[in-house]
Amino acid sequence: MHKPKPATGLYLFIAAAAVFGGTMVARAQTAEKSVWSGVYTDEQAARGKEAYAANCATCHGESLAGIDVAPPLTGATFLNNWNSTTAADLFTRIKTTMPLNAPDTLSGKTVSDIEAFIFQSNGFPAGQTALPTNPAMMAGVKIVATKPAG
Prior knowledge:
Blueprint: H1 8-30, E1 33-34, H2 42-55, H3 57-60, H4 75-82, H5 87-97, H6 108-121, E2 141-142
Parallel strand pairs: 1-2
């Protein structure tokens, strides 16, 4: 009589799914970062400084302090306005509404470079990875006004 073999393949699959599934859940829970995590590079901010000068400084000022009705992009007012939002929110605002005389004309790369320059100008540290050029990829990056303890 032939005895059926244990379903070892099925057991291995279930065990692997439990291990890797648990890892995926852990990653999803820790995927959210803040601007204090180094979410842009120095090179990106340097490109952003040039793009800012060409596209934003006329209204927001060379020092990002704001002029007339254009709000400041640094300091307490900026941080209060954007605290607890995401880098994706800021990206979308810049992309769809700026520059005022030609909204939605800047490329995603230019917008992320300008955003990196804004982050640098607000004292957020640079990191090893550039800010993405797609807002969906930066939705987990929180703008947090106060540096977290630790």
